[in-house]
Amino acid sequence: MMSTAALRAHLLRAGLAGTVATPRETSLRSYRLFAARDPRLLIGLDPEWAWTQRDVIALMAQKCGVSADPRHTSGQDVIDPELTLAALDAFADRLGTVARSGGPVLLGTGHPHRLLGFYAALAGALSAAGCGVLTPAQGRCVDITTRFGLRTFVIDYVRGVALVRPHGPGRTGCEPGAHTHSPLPVRLALQAAADAGGPLPALVIGDHGWVCGAGQLGFEAMGLGDTDDPALFVGQAEGRVSVVVPLDDGVRADYYRPLIRYVLDRACLSR
């Protein structure tokens, strides 16, 4: 099993924690827009509490380790590796509990270029443990507002992990997955599962709108969150997201491999 000390060193070396690539300016803008209830930052969450920007900064300092000083307005953000390690332990413990129960799971990502391998490894281990890895709404279209306007995407599954691909004339279905924060894909997937009368997930695992969208609908959800993703941490604070692991969600895909080993070992899912 990978030691905590070795994983801590990797987190810092890979930029997953410690000083990360997200600029402080970007995070502060996200906190301000979240406090203003901008849907782009809510990503499916409907906060119960009134959150000011200062409130969000204080929460993110507690959960991620970013500076709690609102006057700190520039430079690179920071994630406390001890908070990442503690959250990874909680993530692994919950994963192990679900695996032992054999409950169905749904996995989805808005970061397929970076995080698909991480989630796919979890899907494979959960499937081997007897959990049903759900794939509802495969091939269904969903319209998502992007910075380029309203675009149509199609829900697809790769190695048990949901993602969205561009859809339209000339598309082959082999396009890479698209980056999205939208909660619409998970809403469509969960509705499709309900309409089919099939099993509903005991746990949703992912990031961005996959976590917040599912949690808002009352499904247990957990996943990964960066310093500019306040909705996940607010969802956790309000009791609609069970676990959020603070880390940089945009580093090289292979940098997440040691996290896979650590989580699966702790969850007793290694083969």
From TrEMBL:
InterPro entries: Phosphatase_SCO2771. This is Phosphatase. Pfam families: Phosphatase.
